[in-house]
Specification:
The protein is an alpha+beta fold. The protein has one domain. The protein has 5 helices and 9 strands, in the order H-H-E-H-E-E-H-E-E-E-H-E-E-E. Strands 2, 3, 4, 5, 6 and 7 form a 6-stranded antiparallel beta sheet that branches. A 3-stranded antiparallel beta sheet has the order 1-9-8. Helix 2 packs across helix 3. It starts with a helix and ends with a strand.
């Protein structure tokens, strides 16, 4: 009993410190700083000179602060609280809270056999993989995905993504592993631990 109480207090203190540091990292100032960097990257993208010479570092805290303070109005209905972890060596992990009921209602076929019409609740969806970029193009290689901690096979995740990302411009939805063009004349993104560097 004497050993257990100090251990419990120590663990509790570690959790409190971790939560405090995380909360301190997310701020409106960090969000504003990231927005200014987006503006710089956009302006630099309009010019073709010095290709590959302009390097803009962005931190995990800046990106997550931007998600917290600036992104909510840009997110589709039923999607909230996106966060990203920049692991390093190209690896990134993202989590988002998905309101299954809201998405199902919005995108449901309306048929009685549509299983999404019976689902509900807010669940965390986590995806991790490696972002590969070079020569102005990128591709995301999925390594794992889960919903509320339950592993989800790639075909199931792709089906959900395709279904919920359909639009006039993309009638078949977004392909998870499809190569894509990097915007703003970005040549590559170097993903390190806790930060990434945008190279234009």
């Amino acid at each position: 009993m004497r050993i257990r109480r100090p251990l419990t207090l120590a663990l509790g203190a570690c959790v409190c410190v971790t939560l405090t540091l995380h909360a301190a990292a997310i701020s409106r100032q960090q969000a504003d700083l990231f927005q200014r960097k987006i503006d710089v990257i956009t302006r630099q993208g309009a010019t073709r000179d010095r290709a590959g010479q302009r390097r803009t570092p962005v931190s995990e805290a800046e990106v997550n602060s931007w998600f917290a303070y600036r992104a909510p109005s840009l997110l589709p209905a039923g999607v909230a609280e996106p966060t990203i972890t920049i692991v390093g060596n190209g690896k990134v992990m993202g989590t988002v809270i998905v309101d299954i009921g809201a998405l199902a209602k919005q995108k449901s076929s309306g048929g009685t056999l549509d299983p999404l019409g019976y689902l509900g609740g807010r669940v965390p969806v986590t995806v991790s993989g490696v972002l590969r970029t070079d020569g102005g193009r990128g591709q995301f290689d999925l390594q794992s995905a889960d919903i509320s901690g339950v592993p989800v096979p790639k075909p199931v995740l792709q089906e959900l993504l395709s279904r919920y990302s359909r639009s006039k411009d993309h009638p078949d939805g977004v392909r998870l592993d499809a190569p894509f063009e990097l915007p703003a004349n970005i040549q590559k993104i170097e993903v390190g631990a806790g930060q990434a560097v945008v190279v234009q």
